[in-house]
Amino acid sequence: QPQIAESGGGLVQPGGSLRLSCAASGLTLDGFTMGWIRQAPGKDNEGVSCISTSDGRTYYSDSVKGRFTISGDNDKNTVYLQMNNLKPEDTAIYYCAVSPLVVMTPQDMCNRLRANLWGQGTQVTVSS
After folding, report:
1. What is the CA radius of gyration of the chain?
2. Mean pLDDT over residues 49-58, rounded?
3. 3-state secondary structure of 111
4. Ordered DSSP codes for 36-91
5. What is the DSSP-derived secondary structure letter of residue 107?
6. Could you tell me if 21 and 122 are in contact, meaning their C-beta atoms sit under 8 angstroms apart?
7. Where does the pLDDT of residue 28 fall: very low under 50, low under 70, confident under 90, or very high at 90 and above?
8. pLDDT confidence of residue 31
9. Spatial CA neighbour of 22 closest among 37, 12, 11
10. Beta pairing, strands 78-83 & 18-25
11. Rounded alpha-carbon distances, angstroms, from residue 22 to 27, 43, 51
12. How many angstroms separate the CA atoms of 77 and 7, rounded?
């Protein structure tokens, strides 16, 4: 049974940094799209950043470009999200998403907010 484990969330002051990790286990396909989708009360769900673990293609939402960096390890089916210069509006639950690359590109995942597998989420709170 495939599973996803997220970690790295927490409480940080504005301007601080956090690094999220997502490890997918039990996968049998080689080549995945993985990404981070966040949910916050009163706001639309947003595809923050998504990546192809096989060729490194990435997609970022306009709200995080220049501040967040996504990277992946295809051999370990793991993706990381380095979040710098965090703002209060970044506060949300961040969910890791996984889909086979053949059916879901990074752009599709982040824009359509769809995936085959979802993690349980990790809370990111940016507050003074």
Report:
1. 13
2. 91
3. helix
4. EEEE-TTS--EEEEEEETTT--EEE-TTTTTTEEEEEETTTTEEEEEE-S--GGG-
5. H
6. no
7. confident
8. 84
9. 37
10. antiparallel
11. 13, 23, 12
12. 15
Q: What is the mean pLDDT of the segment spanning 20-29?
A: 88
Inter-CA distances, 50 with 2, 40, 47, 105, 110, Å: 19, 18, 8, 8, 6
Could you give the count of Cα atoms lying within 13 Å of 121 in the half-sphere of its Cβ? 11
User: Per residue in 74-122, pLDDT tens?
Assistant: 777 899 999 999 999 999 999 999 998 888 999 999 999 999 999 999 9
In contact, 49 and 64? CB cutoff 8 Å: yes
Task: Quote the CA–CA distance of 128 and 116 in Å, as a whole number.
Answer: 36
What is the C-alpha to C-alpha distance for residues 108 and 66, in angstroms, rounded to an integer? 21
